[in-house]
Amino acid sequence: MSDGHGSEPSTPPRWAENQPPPYAGQGQTPWTAPGDSGPPADAPPSGQVPAGQAAQGQVVPGQAPPYGQPPQGPPSYAPHDGRAQPPYGQAPYGPYGQAPGYGRPSGYHPPPQALRPGIIPLRPLALGDILDGTIKLIRSNPKATLGLSAIAAAIGTLPLAIGQAVYYRSMGDLLANPSALESGSEVPVGGLVAQLGGALLSLIIQFFLVTVLTGILTRVLGRSVFGGRITVGEAWRLTRSRLPALFGLALLTGLIALAPLAVAVALVVGLYAAGAGVGALVGVSLLLALAYLAYALFISTHLALAAPAVVLERRGVIDSMRRSWSLVRGSFWRVLGILLLTQIMVGFLGGILSVPINIVSVVVIFAGQGSLAATVITTILFTLGGILSSMITYPIQAGVNGLLYTDRRMRAEAFDLVLQTAAIEQQRQGWVPATADELWHPSHAAGAAGPQPTGTPGAP
């Protein structure tokens, strides 16, 4: 191949085989069929018509036919493969609309498929690509995704399971004698406090765990995009230095999300203390709830891509939040819709997996009438149900967030060009090196300013 400096190839290129030379001989043109020796000896010079032919409407080779009359006779040219064209009026296609010599049907042809070395095609992603890539992420790295999710689910579900068990145990007397409730026996307050406290503690723990787990699984996703695999130990080793930033991100995000809620609750309590009527309290509470819901959706959507930025781009807490905000800008409603759809799917799937175990737990606690053995069994069953549900739903949430981050970078920074270039090089090498993780740094984005490593798009 020519290097662009005037050197000629030592051998002709492969695509030039069996093709006629540009001007093989006198009287031939680039469109002359191979084997033609030029015009016959008795042919008149070009542009002249033999006497008597023009009146009969016959066409001379190399001269246009009269207006309104189709050309006749064999063609004076042939395509590069040397086969003559069919006569005028006959379709130049074979069976089923297939062009001769090309082996493909005529008409519209879809564009070529994008490179797909791993879990997603290396182009801007549609909703189906994101969901399909998330499932492939779990299937291609089951130990890293399901194993880490099971550990996180066990930690996050345990307080809720203990609170539920304490509540059912406190209801032992009422379960043994349901008629006592009609006689004026009070429902144990301690059990209700334990149940609500356990649920609240589980929500807080799960919020932090999901943020950290999203960061760790994003590291797994970063390698899976290229078709590579990563072990749990390697994912932990690559991510543990980012744990302080992930915890800080979860804490700051939680404060930003909960601060308006605390103000709303304080306002309602103040109105109640001031003697406001029930109707006013209900109306104000409803308006504040709707306003807070809109605020929570707005904030959570704009900060949804912060955890991948912390891990893959090694940014700080504030910088990663700004990064997520800038990536979501211009595509807020699309990102919000995908996140809401994911939450609905996750809730539905989690219910299918956990509800049967929770029903068995309730049956056990009623049959045991609040005994210690029934309490222990119920705690174990609740924990297993939470683990089974969360070990599937956590990776789905993390995968969708990570692929949304990837999609936004492709659309905003032409990052798909960087991924395609790297994938081609990895295919040539035959393996995915660990240095592929560095491609996620923003300096590798197409058109990024500043110095870039040699071999990446935009590098000198």
Automatic annotation (TrEMBL):
- Give start-end of the signal peptide: none
Q: Which residues cross the membrane?
A: 146-168, 199-222, 243-274, 286-311, 332-353, 359-384
Which residues lie within the region annotated Disordered? Answer: 1-115
DUF7847 domain location: 125-388
Stored Pfam families: DUF7847
Source organism's superkingdom? Answer: Bacteria
Q: Where is the composition biased (Low complexity)?
A: 33-62, 84-103
Biased composition annotated in UniProt, kind: Pro residues = 63-77
Keywords from UniProt, A to Z, are:
Membrane, Transmembrane, Transmembrane helix
What protein name is recorded for this chain? Answer: DUF7847 domain-containing protein
